[in-house]
């Protein structure tokens, strides 16, 4: 009689069927927008900027609206309140996020070819950790920029945190911050991976039940 641990080990060791492998390949394709499109967008409106100032955050760079002029204007405003200048070079995330996304895509491809149910479970947990850590890192960066203000700034404002997601009123600015296509694609990767894991687990249990009936 197999123990519960032995049965679980047997389920996790089942090779993947066709459907989970196809979903893994689809997840790999969904990684592409993380390189090609912005992950996040922030827009600032004020009476002196009725058309708004826009900033896009890619996995590897910052860009501004109006041909890049908006981010220059944002940095001028930041200078007056003592906030550190926003530059691509100051974001360590731009160095490791593209590498991690590329590495995950390769691991997904390997799992699609050689994976087992246990491999999918490991990938799902790893990917959730990557997503949650990335969100925390972004939020911490926003907090640091708004709380480490130069004491010599010409305009004194209390420490603040720009919105991670949604709307926030900062002085006379209305700031909107929302995920963009790249982040939605990465969220779709999690959903696709979860669906692959669900199908793989269901198929492994069905095979185990069939083997038990034959053995009995």
Q: What is the topological layout?
A:
Blueprint: H1 4-12, H2 18-30, H3 32-36, E1 40-46, E2 49-57, E3 62-64, H4 69-81, H5 93-114, H6 117-147, E4 166-170, E5 173-179, H7 181-215
Antiparallel strand pairs: 1-2, 1-5, 2-3, 4-5
What does this structure look like?
It is a single chain. With 216 residues, the chain is of the alpha+beta class. It has one domain: Butyryl-CoA Dehydrogenase, subunit A, domain 3. The protein has a five-stranded antiparallel β-sheet. The longest helix has 35 residues. It is elongated, with a radius of gyration of 23 Å. The model has no long low-confidence stretch (mean pLDDT 88).
Features:
5 strands; alpha+beta; Butyryl-CoA Dehydrogenase, subunit A, domain 3; 7 helices
State the share of residues found in helices, binned by percent. 55-70%
Q: How do the helices and strands follow one another from N- to C-terminus?
A: HHHEEEHHHEEH
Report the major sheet.
Answer: 5 strands, antiparallel
Structural Rg:
23 Å
Please indicate the count of domains: 1
What is the terminal-to-terminal distance? 12 Å
Number of strands: 5
Number of helices: 7
Oligomer: single chain
